């Protein structure tokens, strides 16, 4: 029998979460659930659990570069997702490597963990703005990351448009401003500057939300690798994340993870 064709290939460039709820681990679980082949370039190792981040150790930039090149030169890449990049040298290396890949890239500009632990050095923020965001097909900041990147404080739904305009000025093709921390319905704004799409969903009263941002960005990348355009990919990713969030479960003594395998457990795949 002939071999099965390879599925679409997605590379995540991010930190490792030893608790398995976010970071590289969440990315690879999401990619598997959505039918793509996940590959990884680890930027940092964290000692992390449901209570927070106890330690962070960055890999040398050359190690990050070598991982990216090993994957790209042999296997190939149909889409990229970036997460925790930690330091200015790592952000710079990733931006330069992405320039040669020619694949759509989803940038999750991770600044702090779910527990408030800093995951991006202060001197890396400007490199992220000037070198990485211009490479992004989609950038997916939450409201804290909007403030970090633009200085804009989003307090209501009308501020989403102002924040998105400021982010688009930094060079990404599309911006998805995640308004999940606003009161009322969960409202996100997706825009490329000419098309505005408001994604509104009923707020789920859930405690176990660890890994939500990583999961969303990875799901978008998976759908882009499968050939979807950006609006279609974002809508499909939102549907997946909403299901994962609804199925989140307690783990440890703190914030539990979303359920990346909810589709399988629900019998829909």
Automatic annotation (TrEMBL):
Gene3D superfamilies: 3.40.1190.20
Pathway(s) it belongs to: Cofactor biosynthesis; thiamine diphosphate biosynthesis; 4-amino-2-methyl-5-diphosphomethylpyrimidine from 5-amino-1-(5-phospho-D-ribosyl)imidazole: step 3/3
Segments forming domain Pyridoxamine kinase/Phosphomethylpyrimidine kinase: 17-259
GO cellular component: cytosol
GO MF: ATP binding; hydroxymethylpyrimidine kinase activity; phosphomethylpyrimidine kinase activity
GO biological process assignments: thiamine biosynthetic process; thiamine diphosphate biosynthetic process
Keyword terms: ATP-binding, Kinase, Nucleotide-binding, Thiamine biosynthesis, Transferase
Reaction catalyzed: 4-amino-2-methyl-5-(phosphooxymethyl)pyrimidine + ATP = 4-amino-2-methyl-5-(diphosphooxymethyl)pyrimidine + ADP; 4-amino-5-hydroxymethyl-2-methylpyrimidine + ATP = 4-amino-2-methyl-5-(phosphooxymethyl)pyrimidine + ADP + H(+)
Pfam families: Phos_pyr_kin
Keyword Lipoprotein: no
CDD domains, alphabetized: HMPP_kinase
Function according to Swiss-Prot or TrEMBL: Catalyzes the phosphorylation of hydroxymethylpyrimidine phosphate (HMP-P) to HMP-PP, and of HMP to HMP-P.
PANTHER family in the record: HYDROXYMETHYLPYRIMIDINE_PHOSPHOMETHYLPYRIMIDINE KINASE THI20-RELATED, PHOSPHOMETHYLPYRIMIDINE KINASE
Protein name, per record: Bifunctional hydroxymethylpyrimidine kinase/phosphomethylpyrimidine kinase
Species of origin: Parafrankia soli
